[in-house]
Amino acid sequence: MSKLTIIGSGNIGFSLAKGLVKSNIYQAGDIVLTRRTLASLEEEAKQGFGVSANNAEAIQGAEIIVLAVLPQQIKKVMEEIAPVVQRDQIIVSVASGVSCQDVKEVLGQDKTVVRVMPNTAIAIGQSMTCIATDNADAEVVKKVEKLFEAVGSVVVINEDLMTSATALCACGIAFFLRAIRAASQGGVEIGFHAHDALKMAIQTAKGAADLLLQTHSHPESEIDKVTSPKGCTIAGLNEMEHNGLSSAFIKGIKLSAKKAGGLYNE
């Protein structure tokens, strides 16, 4: 059994499927994608993927079943597949705020469940994906890691940190995007055309991130390199801090984490 079924082939599900094919981990024909209607899977079918509107049928013969649906929808989907899920199938849940135990309560306590939290940069193979489990074997976790390494970076964490990971990595995309947007608006105010200001802000943010990724240095040591005594950088930084930049960021992440924990039960 080396078939993979992805239930709920929206942005994340389809991006994962494309990444796996691009990395030669799977052939398109070995992946089955499901949605509520087959009409919305036309593009996927053209690319050679198996497609289905019947979740219970789609998981038959699959080694790994990825539940890539919203936390509000996952219970209904699990109830559909519960009668046919086999004990040796690996269940991968991408729904935020849904624990391994929540999944087992519907699919059965003898099932193997791994929780995964990617972010929307999965669309370009740059996801920061966090993986956790309650008691799946290390070998199973390695298999799931390999899947998501095809679409970005992976960190394996304790399950009790998964809602925190949602806030920092999944919601975090929006926080960094808003910071880039704010930088571009500042650029317009100091004289640049909007399109130039945005391009400059984006590349500067990308450069900052790559600098840390490639040199493995700490943000503060890189900040020290740009802040000269009585200089313009430290003046700008301190003004931002006086207005609560770091504090606002931290508070936002904390509130997102609190909210992420309650999605399944709402």
From TrEMBL:
Q: In which pathway does it act?
A: Amino-acid biosynthesis; L-proline biosynthesis; L-proline from L-glutamate 5-semialdehyde: step 1/1
Name of the featured protein: Pyrroline-5-carboxylate reductase
Reaction(s) catalysed by this chain, per the record, are: L-proline + NADP(+) = (S)-1-pyrroline-5-carboxylate + NADPH + 2 H(+); L-proline + NAD(+) = (S)-1-pyrroline-5-carboxylate + NADH + 2 H(+)
What keywords sit in the KW lines? Answer: Amino-acid biosynthesis, Cytoplasm, NADP, Oxidoreductase, Proline biosynthesis
- Which leading EC class covers this enzyme? oxidoreductase
Span of domain Pyrroline-5-carboxylate reductase catalytic N-terminal: 3-97
- Gene3D superfamilies linked to this entry: NAD(P)-binding Rossmann-like Domain, ProC C-terminal domain-like
Entry's Pfam families? F420_oxidored, P5CR_dimer
NCBIfam families associated with the record: proC (TIGR00112)
Q: What gene is this protein a product of?
A: proC
Q: Which family does it belong to?
A: Belongs to the pyrroline-5-carboxylate reductase family.
**So what does this one do?**
Catalyzes the reduction of 1-pyrroline-5-carboxylate (PCA) to L-proline.
Q: Where in the cell is it found?
A: Cytoplasm
Instruction: Supply the EC number(s).
Output: 1.5.1.2
- Positions of the Pyrroline-5-carboxylate reductase dimerisation domain: 159-260
Question: Main location per UniProt?
Answer: cytoplasm
InterPro entries annotated for this entry? Answer: 6-PGluconate_DH-like_C_sf (IPR008927), NAD(P)-bd_dom_sf (IPR036291), P5C_Rdtase_cat_N (IPR028939), P5CR_dimer (IPR029036), Pyrroline-COOH_reductase (IPR000304)
